[in-house]
Amino acid sequence: MVQTLDAVAVPRWTEWESVSAPALVVYASGGIFSEEDKAEFVRRGQRAQLIEIPDASHDAHLDAFDRWIEILHAFLRQDQPR
């Protein structure tokens, strides 16, 4: 398990920086990432949009499900033809 975690814990900035599609980056106020880490991730994204969910943990999709779905739906509607 440690070997697997070590393999995926390596920054993959080249791959992330090559993503040209709009990307929704959702962080929670009670998550595990520092403000610097969040800012760096969004800064390196070509079309990254940051949303923070207050009063949620790292598992915001579980403990703030309704808000997470609301945010996801709003993001997906942005690129829909009118």
Put simply, the count of helices is 5
What's the story with the biggest beta sheet? 2 strands, parallel
Order of helices and strands: HHEHEHH
Arithmetic mean of pLDDT: 89
Rg measurement, Å: 14 Å
Helix content: 40-55%
**What percent of residues are in strands?**
15-25%
Low-pLDDT residue intervals, each spanning 5 or more residues: none
Question: Keyphrases for this structure?
Answer:
82 residues; alpha+beta; two-stranded parallel sheet; 5 helices; 2 strands
How is this structure best described in words?
With 82 residues, the protein is α+β, with helices and mostly antiparallel strands. Helix content is 49%, strand content 22%.
SSE blueprint and pairings:
Blueprint: H1 2-8, H2 13-17, E1 23-30, H3 35-44, E2 48-57, H4 60-63, H5 65-78
Parallel strand pairs: 1-2
